[in-house]
Structure formats: C-alpha cells, structure tokens
Write a structure and sequence with these properties.
The protein is α+β, with helices and mostly antiparallel strands. The protein has helices at 2-34, 47-57, 64-80, 85-108, 121-144, 158-181, 186-194, 207-221, 232-239, 244-268, 276-315, 325-338, 354-361, 363-378, 404-420, 450-466; strands at residues 344-351, 386-389, 394-400, 423-424, 430-431, 435-442, 472-474. Helices cover 63% and strands 7% of the residues. It is an enzyme of class 2 (transferase). It comes from Acinetobacter pecorum. Keywords: Cell membrane, Membrane, Transmembrane, Transmembrane helix. It catalyses: 2 GTP = 3',3'-c-di-GMP + 2 diphosphate.
Length: 476
C-alpha cells in the first residue's frame, strides 16, 4: 500500500513536469523556428537555454517526465514544421545534449547554481554552457546531421556549420538563461506589492535605459562592423544603476536588436551566407558584449548588498536588531533639528529583575529574553518610530507626532503584552517577564536636546521601579 502511494505521488510529479516542460519548450521552439531561414539554422533558438534554466530554477521538473516532455516538444515542433522523422530525431538529440552535458558538469564541479549571482558562480556557469554544453551539442550535430539524406548540413562545410551552431547556442544562452534565472520569485513579487512605497521616480534614474535605447536606434541607422560597440558605454552605465533582472531584460533587448540589425546589414551586402565566418565572429562579439555588463551588474549589486549589510551591523544591536546607542542619537537629533512643529515622546523601558533572571537561568536565556522583548515592542511600533537598546536591559523609544495620551496608551499596551506573553524555553516551560516604563513628552522639538529628554524619561522610569515595577509613569 505504501509503495503504491509513493509510486502514485512520483507519477503525479512526473506528469506535472511533463506538461510544464512540453508547453515551455514547444513555445520556445516555435519562436526559434520562426527565425529560421529556409534550410538553415535558426537565428535565435531560446528552447535549449529555457530548458536548462527551468531544470536549474525548478529542480522538481528535472525528472523522467520533464525529459520526456522536452523530447516530445522538440520532436513535435520539428515534425509539424516540415522536417522528416530522422532529421527531427537527430536535431532533438543535439538540443538535449546541450542541457545534459551542462547539468553533468555543474554537478561534477559542485557549482551551487542557486547562488548564480554571487562570486564567480556566474562566470563558471557560462564557462560550462559555452565550452561544454554548446560545444558538445555542436559537435554531435555536425557528426550526425551531414550523414542524413537531404540534410541542410554538408560535409564540405563541416567546420562552418560547427562554428555557426556553437556560437549561435552561446548567444541564445547569454540572452535567455539569465532572464529566466533572475526572474523574481512569486514571494518576492508579493513582497514588493505589499510593501511598495510612494517614491518619486527621478528623471536621472531612467537616463541609463534611455541611453541604451538611443544607442540601439543608432545601431539600426548606422549599421556596420563597429555598430556592436555603440551600446557598450550605455550598458555599463545601466549595469551600475539597475538590479540584475532589469539588466537581463535590457541586455536581451540590446543583443536581439543589434543581432537583427547587423544580420540585415550583412545580408543586404550578400555576405552573411557567402562568408559565414563573419556571422561566427558577430555571434562571438555579441556574446562578449552581453557577458560584460551582466558580470559588472552582479559585482555592483553584491558590493551594494555588502555595504548595506555592513552599515546595518554598524548601526544596530546584533542581538536584538534594534538601533544601537550611537545610531539612535544620530538619527534622533537629526529629526529633532528638522521637526519644527511635530509633537513627540521619549519612552524609556527596563526589563524588571533582569540581573536575577540572568543569575538564575543563565546568560543564554537572558539573551533570548532580550530578543523576545524586542520583538514584542517592534510589533507595536510604526515604521517611523525609533527603537534602540542603549544598555544591557534598557531600551528607548522616540515616537513622532504623538500626543501624551497616545504615548501612554502605546506604553501601557507594550507593558500589558510583555506581562501576558510568555517566552517558551527549550524544555517546554514558559517564562514570564515584566517591564517598567518612563515617558516624557515634548511639544517643541528644539527646546531641549535628546540626552536631556532621555534623562527626564529615565527619572520617570526610576519612579516606576520605586513604586513596585511593571507600570508606566509619565514625567511631570
């Protein structure tokens, strides 16, 4: 019975993978076939790159059902557009070998493709795609297809056909693979929609993209051997400005249109088919043009993320993720200086009997208590409120645009929640804590500095402690 359930579950996974891959690969094949000149290789063939990207991005599709789906889609697309059975079979095998060899070497070298956007992973991946997957696919194609009757490949042009297939695959991978790998996940899109903020879109933000479009237009107007370099500076500018997915879309736009423009230029001069080395050179150049801004974008994005992480660690308490004392004073005094009319409150909070708790349960429990307390407070604040840890168990709040009654309500709510919300320990027992709170309110931001206000709130906190703890005192 259990074996039957496992088999049924596996079949469901493979059936799902089959239909997903069939649909995706078939659409990509038909797009590629639409760009195929009569009896010649397709100018763009996104199917192989899309198949590999889907297997890397969604490993649950990489099963027998997924591979059968890819085989079915390749065969059907070729057969329905006029190819014979034998031609379709060897073309399909050539396409599949690209993905098979790439996945083999990714696993052989233990490349963590989930982190393609960190370190040198991206470069390693494209090294494998270009010099393993694409190379093996091209080699298999030229060793088999010329031997078939009425083939569009001939033994006389073996090296030319090899170069065209290989470089064509390289361009397809550099255009379509990053686009699929970098596409935002559903939860990332949901997060963006739920947490979107009203921001002014400054004109300068769109300048890099506009310059890329202008360069591509110039490429189509003044086509020629040097046209490939027209968008380079604009692409570098864009790579330093935008996130990776945006950059992959810009890159695909540039490469496809530049590819079309230069192909039309050489076709008009009747040299594109007569001298195929020009075509091979064009594709290698486009591959290098696309690779450079992607690598630069990843380096820039990683540098920015690292800077944000270091800045966050420098300004926040590592245990409770609240602001540290230095950052709280810096930001609080800046806001006091420029908030001319807003009312605000300073609230001091101190966990009761924290030293006794540390001595009885140990410092590791004390650390968890601090984290537990900080999370309760954080859940009851607005985004603009400042929250910092300024001592061992002492915390401070700076609330903006609040009246004294509102500040007291917030403080009482926090005190009540801390008292009623237990911290669950590893042995299953519950630990309850309480907090004492002191408040001061100020109508005129510039009348006193932040340290004096904290001192007043601290005196109110001392009164709360003196009166028996677990209460809120508003400074008179």
């Amino acid at each position: 019975m259990q074996l039957a359930r496992i088999t049924e579950k596996q079949l469901n996974h493979e059936t799902h993978a089959y239909f997903v891959i069939v649909f995706a690969v078939l659409v990509c094949c038909l797009i590629g076939i639409a760009t195929r000149p009569l009896e010649y290789l397709a100018l763009l063939w996104p199917a192989n790159a899309a198949l590999l990207a889907l297997f890397l991005r969604f490993p649950h599709l990489n099963n027998l059902g997924g591979w059968l789906g890819a085989f079915s889609a390749f065969m059907f697309a070729d057969l329905v557009t006029g190819n014979g059975l034998l031609h379709s079979l060897f073309l399909t095998l050539s396409n599949l070998i690209s993905t098979i060899v790439s996945i083999f070497f990714i696993r052989y070298f233990k490349i963590n493709y989930k982190y393609y956007n960190t370190g040198y992973t991206f470069v390693h991946l494209f090294g494998i795609f270009a010099f393993a997957g694409c190379l093996a696919s091209a080699a298999f194609a030229v060793l088999t297809l010329p031997n078939l009757p009425n083939s569009f490949m001939t033994k006389e042009n073996l090296w030319i056909d090899f170069g065209l297939w290989w470089t064509g695959e390289m361009v397809n991978y550099i255009v379509f693979l990053p686009l699929i790998l970098a596409f935002p996940r559903i939860k990332d899109l949901q997060y963006l929609f739920k947490n979107r903020r009203q921001k002014r879109n400054y004109f300068s933000y769109f300048l890099p993209a506009s310059s890329v479009v202008a360069c591509v237009i110039i490429t189509n107007i003044f086509a020629g051997p040097g046209a490939m370099l027209y968008p380079l500076a604009a692409l570098i500018w864009a790579a330093l400005t935008y996130r990776l997915f945006t950059m992959t879309m810009i890159n695909a736009f540039v490469i496809i249109l530049t590819y079309y423009s230069l192909t039309q230029f050489y076709a008009t001069n009747h040299t594109i088919l007569a001298d195929s080395t020009i075509y091979i050179s064009l594709r290698i150049g486009l591959f290098m043009l696309a690779l450079s801004p992607l690598i630069l974008c990843i380096i820039s994005q990683n540098r920015n993320e690292l800077f944000k992480r270091v800045l966050y660690l420098a300004n926040h308490d590592s245990l409770t993720r609240t602001m540290n004392r230095h950052f709280f004073f810096k930001k609080g005094e800046y806001l006091l200086q420029y908030a001319k009319t807003m009312e605000f409150s300073v609230i001091m909070l101190d966990i009761d009997y924290f030293k006794r708790l540390n001595d009885h349960f140990g410092h590791h429990v004390g650390d968890k208590v601090l984290q537990h307390f900080a999370q309760i407070v954080r859940n009851n604040l607005r985004a603009q409120d400042l929250f910092a840890r300024i001592g061992g168990e002492e915390f401070v709040l700076l609330l903006w645009n609040t009246e004294p009654s509102e500040a007291r309500i917030i403080a009482e709510r926090i005190r009540d929640l801390v008292e009623k919300t237990p911290m669950h320990q590893s042995d299953g027992s519950s630990l309850y804590i309480t907090v004492s709170i002191g408040i001061t309110h100020q109508n005129e931001p510039n009348s006193q500095d932040l340290q004096n206000l904290i001192n007043i709130a601290d005196q109110a906190l001392y009164q709360a402690k003196h009166r028996g703890r677990n209460q809120v005192v508003l400074a008179s």
